[in-house]
From TrEMBL:
Lineage: Bacteria, Pseudomonadati, Bacteroidota, Cytophagia, Cytophagales
Identification of the protein by name: Putative membrane protein SpoIIM required for sporulation
Record keywords: Membrane, Transmembrane, Transmembrane helix
UniProt-listed InterPro entries: SpoIIM-like (IPR002798)
Species of provenance: Runella defluvii
Record field: transmembrane: 96-114, 163-185, 192-213, 219-238, 258-277, 283-303
Amino acid sequence: MKEAVFVKRNTEKWQAYESTPTHDPDQLTERFIELTDDLSYARTFYPKANVTRYLNGITAQFHQKLYSNRREDRNRVARFWREELPLLMYESRFKLLYSFVFFMGACVLGWVSAANDDTFVRLILGDAYVNQTLENINNGDPLAIYGHTGQVSMFLQITFNNIRVSFVAFVLGIVYSFGTIVILFKNGVMLGAFQFFFFERGLLLTSVLKIWIHGTLEISAIVIAGAAGLVMGHSLLFPRTYSRLESFKQGAKKGVKIVIGLVPIFVTAGFLESFVTRLTLPAFVSGSIILVSAVFIVWYFVIYPRQLSQHK
């Protein structure tokens, strides 16, 4: 291969490695291996060329980064929450935005559909749920359904179901992101129809102060899981300089890390739904829980990742 052809084939990859640095040890290792392969080739066929000196310099830089990352971290779990997950969220910030837009668009569609079709809410939520809720409204306790199940069994069931939904939203990203979009759309339409059902009966504020005690974390986590699915789907659609298989491996690994990071969120949401939502709390207390949950989600998954990336 002529030197000019070798440089043309790989320049974009080399420039991407320099312009988009990574702190992920696995990704650093993969890049270092590719660079050493390129350097070995250049040393064999173009030993005195500028490209060989360039590759030698950039490979040395990656070696230093890789060596520093090999230092044993005594608290790998803490570093994951403190740095790795936030930096991954910053890297995936546009996927998070797209997931949010898809979900909110579906919510609006669910609301509008329920407003224009009297049968839509029953179609989406089911007759049993609607009939039970209407009976609860007539009895003066619109959201009594949250107090009918044992707390511990409800906690386990809800937490498992929420984790399952988030995992499905992520895994279906393998269908070039389409499956993830379907899950976001389905849950968004359901939420929009659900909230209109209470709005139509003058109970929107009552439902918000009750349901969003746990819903703030639960819905946010589903949107973030959607972002994880889009990360994997995007890696298949746009492999860039990698082979499609290699790009998929990297996208899947990033998505799994995001979904794992959501487990404590779902556990907390399940706890709130099982032990707190069923209580009759003053509006100030309910509003405070909702506000604190929302602030945490925005700070940890949006603001803090940006701040952290600026100091790296």
